[in-house]
Amino acid sequence: MTTETLIWLIPLPPVLAFFLIVLFTNKNKALSHSVAVGAAFLSWLGSMIVFVRALGVEHLGEHPFASSINWLPTGETWLKIGVLIDPLSAATLFFVAWTVLMIFIYSVGYHNYGQPAGDHDHAGLPPHGATVTDDLGHKHTVLSVEPMYSRFFAFIGLFAFGMYALVVSDNLLTLFVGWEIMGLCSYLLIGFWYGKSSARNAAVKAFMTTRIGDVFMLLGITFLYYATGTLSYREIFTEEVLHTLATVPSGVFGLSAAGLIALLLFIGTIGKSAQFPLHVWLPDAMEGPTPVSAMIHAATMVSAGVFAVIRMFPLLSLDPKTMTIVAFIGAFTAIFAATIAVAQNDIKRVLAYSTISQLGFMIAALGVGAYVAAVFHLITHAFFKALLFLGSGSVIHGMEHGVLHTGNHKVDPQDMFNMGGLRKKMPITFWTFLIGGFALSGFPIITAGFWSKDEILADAFGHGHLAVFITLAIAAFMTAFYTMRQITLTFLGEPRTKEAEHAHETPWTMTAPLVILAFFAVTYGWVGIPEHFPILGGLVPNWFHEFVGGTLAEHPEAVEFNIIPLATSLFVALGGLFFGWLTYRNVQSAEQDKLQIPLLRNKYYFDEAYDFLFIKPLTWFSEVFVSRWMDKSFIDGILHIFGPATGGLGSFIRDKFDVPVVNQFFGDGSADATYWIGKNLRPIQTGRIQQYLILSLIILVVIGGLLFALLVRSA
Amino acid sequence: MIPLSWYLILAAGLFSIGLFGVLARRNAVAILLGVELMLNAVNINLVAFWRYGDVAQMAGQVFAIIVFAVAAAEVAVGLALVISVYRRRNTVVAEELDLLKW
């Protein structure tokens, strides 16, 4: 099979699995997850083959695997769709394939496959546990299987299709299609437990918020198509097209066409990747099944936003104003979300804000022109954040076990202050979570997060963006701090509740993905060690920079080594971790946590502000202005005038025309006239044959006389 | 040779007598007689025109014979009707047979 054909086939298995599960196998849990995991495996296999073949091509950036077909006729030209594997998409495909496969396997364990059905479980609500009686006659409450098990696999199958389609597509149109499919799946998965009103609201919120970004993105795509007549990357990123775009003014804010398009596309990314100010949906997305969908939203789907903006980097980098905006948004989001994460107690919410913050790092990296660093961090982040989310899911799962054991359902299994000491109960989860957490913090040398984050800092410093550098350094310090806080509160110390004492390690389907992801969270960083790094530099070639950098027409230069950013990143990572441990090692409850400032706990009141600024006015607008004033008063008022008016006109016509003229004059009149004529002609019907004959004779004579007079005489 | 107009005047007179009989007589049998007179007036005309026209053409004579046949049939039906009416109504006066009035 040629590589191009293989690339076309990569996205298909998951979508086929989606239809298979929805249409046929949804009654059978084992069959459904086998279909889904099998499909994920096929896509993974295809991706790995393509990745390996891509590695074998020299100068893949200039000669990528590409193939396209005509899709929609647009007048004289065609909208083409196709696939493209260049270094960027090959690298992305690698982590997408791994994380997606891991999610699928993990979901089997997470949704308690093999456990009995729950006592009171309903579709649309999380499982509540089942009572079983053992051989000795003791009753136990154990975890129960998810009631909508098959449905979940169908959804993540569709999701995987969207992600793969987005990654392999060679144009913005199919990228957008994949983008929106993921938006839909995110809505479905956040609202998976639709019996909970919070989940329903979160689903709507996520959908609406990302929709704002998507509308702008679509505008950007339309503008781009209008300006260039194509949506294919390879046709857009040619020198002439880029030059034209950069020189044509757009007429808005003094930006060039390229700047405006890039900005519009970037707003789509702001929505999808939860950047300030559209970040509000992501923490609420944690309402989905803990943490599988959380991971989908936070570790995988949001990467799509960053991926899109990385894809558009050649366009983005044309206008310095746009770059400044991007750098600002990224850096601001990075530090802003990090401050919120410090004060969250829900284990998943900390990770959610951490994700927003890390995505801010990538965006900021792009804003300062650090293309390779952004891609690098995107991939390492996907691995360690996937690991952390799955790890947190494992923790919650273990805690739920404890909750069922004690039967005290008031204990929130997601609140970190209810945990503590879990390292002994859940050793695999602990060690993998520790690796993920250290990677997130940028623990020096051994973890992948260190290399990618260090590269971003070095680039920001090297390109002279001091403000961005300092902001990101502070954000990185806080990242290490809240990560250590999380680890300390969750795993270290002694159990703070009975539930934590009875927590239990999760099954192999959940721990195996953790171990695999932990492997990548450590080793993936080694492919991108800068050449001039002290001691280690040059031991392993900086393969990543060469490979991904080749995507761009002008290969970006690696920044020169400088001790300041390295020292900074060492200091912030180790310092943050140490301070986090120091501060929280003895904290026993939320009251003792000095950083629980209301402003941070309530996320700077963004939800409240948006509620006040947008939702309340909109509700007022729709309920009062549109419904009551416009609809009920104005439009209904007009209609209420029309009703009687047409009624009156109808009555008038009836009374003045229909009844007198049509009915009485023509209708009744013609009948009357006929009747009158008949009545008056009746007497001539005497019944006497001779009278008839006389009449005939008279008429004959008269007509004969007339004919004679007319014809004979005139002739 | 007697001029054609004489025959025509005879026929017209005979026709008028028949017509008068049809219109003026009360007895239904007499009315039928009047009809016969009118038919025969026509016959005189037909034969006269034949004799004074192209003798080789036999149409006039043939027509007259057909009229005879029709008249005979007509009288047979007509008299049968009169007898039938008389049996039911006990009269043959035309004026009294006015059932078809309004």
Describe this structure in words.
The complex is a heterodimer of chains A (715) and B (102). Chain A contains 27 helices and 4 strands. With 715 residues, chain A is mainly alpha-helical. The mean pLDDT of chain A is 86. Chain B is an all-alpha fold. Chain B has 3 helices and no strands. Chain B is elongated, with a radius of gyration of 17 Å. The model of chain B has no long low-confidence stretch (mean pLDDT 90). Classes of the chains: A mainly alpha (715), B mainly alpha (102).
What is the fold's blueprint, element by element?
The complex is a heterodimer of chains A (715) and B (102).
Chain A: H1 3-9, H2 12-25, H3 29-55, E1 65-74, E2 77-85, H4 87-110, E3 130-133, E4 139-142, H5 149-168, H6 172-190, H7 197-228, H8 233-236, H9 239-247, H10 257-272, H11 281-284, H12 292-311, H13 313-316, H14 320-342, H15 347-367, H16 371-406, H17 422-425, H18 427-441, H19 448-462, H20 466-491, H21 498-501, H22 508-523, H23 543-549, H24 563-584, H25 598-601, H26 606-681, H27 689-713
Antiparallel strand pairs in A: 1-2, 3-4
Helix pairs in contact in A: 1-3, 2-3, 2-5, 3-4, 3-5, 4-5, 4-12, 4-16, 4-22, 5-6, 5-12, 6-7, 6-12, 7-10, 10-12, 10-14, 12-15, 12-16, 14-15, 14-20, 15-16, 15-19, 15-20, 16-18, 16-19, 16-22, 16-23, 18-20, 18-22, 19-20, 19-24, 20-24
Chain B: H1 4-24, H2 28-52, H3 59-89
Helix pairs in contact in B: 1-2, 2-3
TL;DR of this structure?
The complex is a heterodimer of chains A (715) and B (102). Chain A is built from 27 helices and four strands.
Record keyword descriptors for this entry.
heterodimer, A: about 725 residues, mainly alpha, two-stranded antiparallel sheet, 27 helices, B: about 100 residues, elongated
According to DSSP, the number of beta strands of chain A is 4
Rough shape of chain A? elongated
Termini separation of chain B: 55 Å
What's the tally of helices of chain A? 27
Mean pLDDT of chain B: 90
Using the CA coordinates, give the radius of gyration of chain A.
Answer: 37 Å
Strand element count of chain B: 0
Rg calculated over all Cα atoms of chain B: 17 Å
The chain-level mean pLDDT of chain A equals 86
Residues in helix, % of chain A: 55-70%
Q: Approximately how much helix is present in the residues of chain B?
A: over 70%
